[in-house]
Give the backbone structure.
Amino acid sequence: MIANARMYAVTAPAEQAWRALLAHVSGRAGVVLPYVEHAAPAPVRELWERPDLGCVFMCGYPYASATVTPQLLAAPVPALPRYGGRPIYFSEFIVRAEATVQTLAQTFGNRLACMLPESNSGYNAPRHYLMRLAPAGTQALYRPTAAPTPTPRAVIGAVLAGEAEVGVVDSYVMDLLRRYDPVLVAQLKTLALTPPAPIPVLVASAGADRQQCMRVRAALQGMHQDAAGTALLAALELARFVAVQPADYACLPAMAHEADRASFALTGPAAAERGTG
């Protein structure tokens, strides 16, 4: 069984921190979990479809929508106070630091850099949030970028390059970038946050050995109980890992279905030309 933290390996030092944490989990559990590379531009969905997942981060929306449901191991609890000690995260609407806009509404009609529809933080959650802000009958509040932005780094790059006026990024990704790439983040500012959503979770394949999964699950959930584990967690801005249930993620497909029924798109040609930033 393999390990991988691609979703949150946002810089080379962050990836090394994840490798160290997952190696510690492997040792505590007594389960061999070789770290396998699956970096962009390789589609992350191809990683999730592998039959040998042992401890791999998966976005909650595709997890809850999967035909064959992976085994849940544990979810991270980010350490910053804004998470309230819960396994949640937000989507941050980001703009360039020098942008004159002060509110999200001032950006409506501009170009929005978002991720693929399989992403919760980069597509599903912001679409649902914007649907609630849109005037009746409005089908989109933003225009698309000229080229896709399938990763958080691509979203940020599009905003900084002027290819989009606004971007949406996982708040825990932003936490890690604030720690490991503060020069990059200093070029951005956050205008708004979506409501909290259940954070991406570590999973194993549906067919993975259940006894081994139990040991990995216990190792993850016990990491905060010793000094070595606490240090590894702190290096990744985490407090601990906790148990989660499939029902915790059922809200994510429900959000997508609600937006689908309203025929509301995250971006589209129908977006009003009202942006100023």
Residues 88-197+254-261 form a domain with the D-Maltodextrin-Binding Protein; domain 2 fold (CATH 3.40.190.10).
